[in-house]
Amino acid sequence: MRERSRRTFPLVVTALLAALAWFSFGGRDDDGAGTAPPVREPEARYYATGVRIVATDADGNPSDELRAQRAAYFPGADRWEMQQPRWQGRRNGRPWHGRARRAEATPIGDHERRIVLNGDVELHREAPDPLTLLTDTLTLVPARDYAETDAAVTLRTPASEMTGVGARAWMDRQQVRLLAKVRGTYATE
């Protein structure tokens, strides 16, 4: 069992890195949201502090970076928990970065992970057409390039601000849909 754990740990780290790197704002048709409790070290099989993971593209160049104050792996649930995750990367050539207080990554199927971000979640796409999404909880499915929340959301651009309850985001299409109670302001020159 210990040998299996030693072989599983690098695979899980790689899967988490791939999910978070691919995510850097993704997922498509997720079917639920959850919560991410703080790291509980006594239950964790592995944990690390001051985590920095860099993903590379096919040519070996850095493409995405994940930093976390702390990360822990819980093998019984095949779950990763992170505190203070921060990431940056490029999607369709555009720089994105984000942060949250906590994140939890769990499997959904054989090759996909669901990542639930909780607490002061912020996703930001840089210029041109900068966009900032703010919410308290966001569920991502990186393999589908999709994100969703049922919580209150604020979308900001240089010329507008929209608020609503619930959102769906298709990162590959650069599309965000607010679901209910939508209000907005738009600045004209």
TrEMBL record:
Keyword Cell division among UniProt keywords: no
Signal sequence extent: none
Keywords: Cell inner membrane, Cell membrane, Membrane, Transmembrane, Transmembrane helix
Any single Gene Ontology cellular-component annotation: plasma membrane
Gene3D superfamilies: Lipopolysaccharide (LPS) transport protein A like domain
GO MF annotation: an example: glycolipid transfer activity
Entry-linked InterPro entries: LipoPS_assembly_LptC-rel, LPS_export_LptC, LptC
Zinc-finger as UniProt keyword: no
PANTHER family for the chain: LIPOPOLYSACCHARIDE EXPORT SYSTEM PROTEIN LPTC
NCBIfam families, A to Z: LptC_YrbK (TIGR04409)
Protein's name in the database: Lipopolysaccharide export system protein LptC
Native organism taxonomy: unclassified sequences, metagenomes, ecological metagenomes
